[in-house]
Amino acid sequence: MKKKFDWSVLLGAAFLMASSAIGPGFLTQTAAFTAKLGASFGFAILLSIIMDAIAQLNIWRVIAVADKPAQDIANDVIPGMGYLLSTLVFLGGLAFNIGNIAGAALGLNVLFGIDTAQGAVICALMAIGIFVYREAGKAMDLFAKCMGLLKITLALYIAWISKPPLAEAVIRAVNPAKFDFAAVLTIVGGTVGGYITFAGAHRLLEARQTGPENLKEINNGAITAIGIASLMRILLFMAALGVVAAGFHLDESNPAASVFKLAAGNVGYKIFGLVMWSAGISSVVGSAYTSISFIKSFHPVITQRHRAITITFISVATVIFLIIGKPVKTLIAVGAINGCILPLSLAAMLFAAYKKKIVHNYRQPVWLTISGAAVVIIMTWLSYGAIRSL
């Protein structure tokens, strides 16, 4: 008998994944690559959306059918692979969270003139408050939904104000004049790489919204998550393209802020502050939750004390930021690193889909396997090309 599916949790999981993706690095990457590639960046976005959807569907479905976290599945595929994957995801999540704290603090600085060090502490306490709350899962779902809708609404306004060349953007999305390995690798990594694609799937697992009988709903959740993140990427791209096409040059030290300020003046700059704060704070929550979910199953003590460990995770990222400052270039670099992690994590899920002791009687659609394998090959190739270009 099919168990009742909680659509509120599904939507919360979709927004958690999307909000994890739409962090400060996401804003910085989109603006920086639009300035570099112009309308041709649309091709990279289109390619990334297709690859993101394939990767997300494969990973969410296997986790739902196996009814266990990704690290345990990877260990069942090859002993020790889960520990390797967890280490990479955990360290990548920590590095991203330093940038997320930085972005949230910068947002408060723009909005209220608060010193970034003080802002970092305030934002860390806000994120920690969600995990202190007894109904942390529900609070996280609601928070992710609110922050996601806020970011999309504000980005839509700036995209409309900047008046981008829509015809050129459509043409270059299928016929690019330029191509950049690092651009595709970074934005795929920044959307579904590292910990990000597992954020929603592990949330569904925690809420017990899994099982082969719910695959239709899980498919919808996975596609919704990619759709939300992709919509935000397209709106930011359009906003940046309108500014660049008008002949303005973005400030390399903070390209995302330049887009908002050049498009709408001081009001735009304040909107940037609000978007950066919401992007940063929601990604702090998503990164902390998912990174800890990758080590929870390794020892009962971690499971029992996961809230305290999550709070410590956020605190450590905040302290590191206070020591080293805002790593703007690191936001782009970590996206590329996450892109390199994706082939490993996706390959593990593809192999797991054909192990009966993991997925039981589940039959993986052939088209998902073939397309998933293609994403693994392409991302491996892009990773190699990006590393060679360094």
From TrEMBL:
A single MF term (Gene Ontology): cadmium ion transmembrane transporter activity
Protein name in the entry: Divalent metal cation transporter
Cellular component terms (Gene Ontology): plasma membrane
Membrane topology summary: Multi-pass membrane protein
Primary residence: membrane
Record key words, sorted: Membrane, Transmembrane, Transmembrane helix
The organism's taxonomic lineage, starting at the top: Bacteria, Pseudomonadati, Bacteroidota, Sphingobacteriia, Sphingobacteriales
Membrane listed as a keyword: yes
A Pfam family per the record: Nramp
Domain of life per record: Bacteria
